[in-house]
């Protein structure tokens, strides 16, 4: 019953697992598709974006297939437990969501284009679930790395909310918060990195609402 409760209830810091001072597993050096380092250092001029949109296996593939993306890696973000494991995150006792870190060249692919891909690749109205995957680790999230990203994410959410409502969907439940020291990104285990490249027929639930996100509408209206 305790496990069931934390499927749809975010733990407080006091309720969360204590974690560990450092991760107890290794992360691969390079991306299996793009060939670039996963953990950096990243070349000057590149930027970082973090997204949660359900199971991170299929979500990561969406981003690595995008022109201008230099590397991607999956991990855990938005929770309380330091250096969690996959099993701990899936228990619901860490507060993290499954996230994709996207390192990209803004001269090739602007952040607004990544937001459009994010919104259209999942259903951001489902709360603590994505399709048949139920749990707080599947919640929709954007963790921003600058004031400009925060503003763009909020503007795109507001624009998309309107068209989703017009298409019969409920309100967007996506959390949009700074990727600051209180929300660090913890890389996931090696077997999760580029999972669908290693397992092309593997599990993938990524699928959007079919409603196009009007990127740029909020900016134009302002």
Automatic annotation (TrEMBL):
<feature type="domain" description="Peptide methionine sulphoxide reductase MsrA">
    <location>
        <begin position="50"/>
        <end position="204"/>
    </location>
</feature>
<feature type="active site">
    <location>
        <position position="55"/>
    </location>
</feature>
<dbReference type="GO" id="GO:0008113">
    <property type="term" value="F:peptide-methionine (S)-S-oxide reductase activity"/>
</dbReference>
<dbReference type="InterPro" id="IPR002569">
    <property type="entry name" value="Met_Sox_Rdtase_MsrA_dom"/>
</dbReference>
<keyword id="KW-0560">Oxidoreductase</keyword>
<dbReference type="InterPro" id="IPR036509">
    <property type="entry name" value="Met_Sox_Rdtase_MsrA_sf"/>
</dbReference>
<comment type="similarity">
    <text>Belongs to the MsrA Met sulfoxide reductase family.</text>
</comment>
<comment type="function">
    <text>Has an important function as a repair enzyme for proteins that have been inactivated by oxidation. Catalyzes the reversible oxidation-reduction of methionine sulfoxide in proteins to methionine.</text>
</comment>
<protein>
    <recommendedName>
        <fullName>Peptide methionine sulfoxide reductase MsrA</fullName>
        <ecNumber>1.8.4.11</ecNumber>
    </recommendedName>
</protein>
<dbReference type="InterPro" id="IPR050162">
    <property type="entry name" value="MsrA_MetSO_reductase"/>
</dbReference>
<dbReference type="Pfam" id="PF01625">
    <property type="entry name" value="PMSR"/>
</dbReference>
């Amino acid at each position: 019953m305790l496990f069931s409760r934390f499927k749809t209830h975010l733990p407080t810091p006091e309720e969360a697992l204590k974690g560990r001072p450092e991760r107890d597993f290794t992360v691969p050096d390079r991306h299996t598709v793009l060939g670039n380092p996963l953990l950096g250092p990243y070349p000057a001029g590149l930027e970082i974006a973090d997204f949660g949109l359900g199971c991170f296996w299929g979500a990561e593939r969406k981003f690595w297939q995008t022109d201008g993306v230099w590397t991607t890696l999956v991990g855990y973000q938005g929770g309380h437990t330091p250096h969690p494991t996959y099993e701990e995150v899936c228990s619901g006792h860490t507060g993290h969501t499954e996230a994709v870190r996207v390192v990209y060249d803004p001269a090739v692919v602007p952040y607004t284009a990544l937001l459009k891909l994010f919104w259209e690749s999942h259903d951001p109205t489902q709360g603590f679930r994505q399709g048949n995957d139920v749990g707080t680790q599947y919640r929709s999230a954007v963790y921003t790395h600058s004031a400009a990203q925060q503003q763009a994410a909020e503007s795109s959410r507001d624009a998309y909310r309107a068209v989703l409502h017009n298409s019969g969907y409920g309100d967007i439940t996506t959390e949009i918060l700074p990727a600051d020291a209180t929300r660090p990104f913890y890389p996931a285990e090696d077997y999760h990195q580029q999972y669908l490249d290693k397992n092309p027929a593997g599990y993938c639930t990524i699928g959007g609402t079919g409603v196009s996100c009007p990127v740029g509408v909020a900016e134009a209206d302002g």
